[in-house]
Design a protein that fits this description.
alpha+beta; 9 helices; Glutathione-S-Trfase_C_sf; Glutathione transferase
Length: 218
């Protein structure tokens, strides 16, 4: 029985899991959750995930939320032994991957959510402070690529951290119109990632995300 993934394609972290599963060659039973209709706040959903968030993974009665945790679980359970995606036996690489995952959840995605959640749910336009926080997250990540001269977010091999970073960058760059000029290393990185087969899993949801943001900003 394929693992079940609950969510919606416009969700930034949901797309990170789709890309990870694609790279692993793992088929998921994807089930749409209508956030605008409040399906993530129903008693049935909250019994599975008291946080009321997507994505949510169900795997043979095991429930796990948060895309960063989900991708670590999927790579560990369904990936190849000591796969560079999330290598159990390479402590230094695994620790750097964890660092990038925490960077995304706390700063990059954390900054984006502070913009999109009020915008989508409350029709509140992003303020200068929120945009500066997002810009700072982009700046730090651009510096990491510049200093380390790496192809991926950790070294020169793809990792599960790339999926979250790709989804976050491709979505929240919408709010930074000068990002290509200001952060050339991030542009080069995204351009390269867009050519990967797994990136196709990001396209439909990214288009839906951009469309929703456009409507809310009018």
């Amino acid at each position: 029985m394929a693992p079940i993934l609950f969510g919606t394609s416009a969700s930034v972290p949901f797309r990170a899991v789709l890309m990870c599963a694609k790279q692993l060659g793992l088929n998921l039973d994807v089930r749409n959750v209508d956030l605008m209709a409040g399906e993530h706040k129903t008693p049935e959903f909250l019994r599975k995930n008291p946080m009321g968030t997507v994505p949510l993974l169900e795997d043979n009665g095991f429930y796990l939320s948060d895309s960063h945790a989900i991708n670590g679980y999927l790579a560990s359970k369904y990936g190849k032994e000591n796969d560079p995606l999330y290598p159990a036996k390479d402590l230094e690489r695994k620790s750097l991957i964890d660092h990038r995952l925490h960077f995304d959840s706390s700063l990059l995605a954390g900054s984006g959510i502070l913009i999109t959640k009020p915008l989508i749910l409350e029709n509140t336009k992003p303020d200068a402070k929120a945009l500066e926080r997002l810009n700072n997250a982009f700046r730090i990540l651009n510096s990491i690529f510049e200093i380390e001269k790496s192809t991926f977010v950790v070294g020169n091999s793809l990792s599960i951290a790339d999926f979250n970073i790709i989804s976050s960058l491709s979505s929240w760059k919408y709010f930074l119109p000068c990002w290509e000029k200001d952060f050339p290393y991030l542009k080069a990185y995204l351009d390269k990632m867009a050519k990967e087969e797994f990136y196709k899993e990001n396209l439909e949801g990214l288009s839906a995300f951009n469309h929703l943001v456009e409507i809310k900003l009018k």
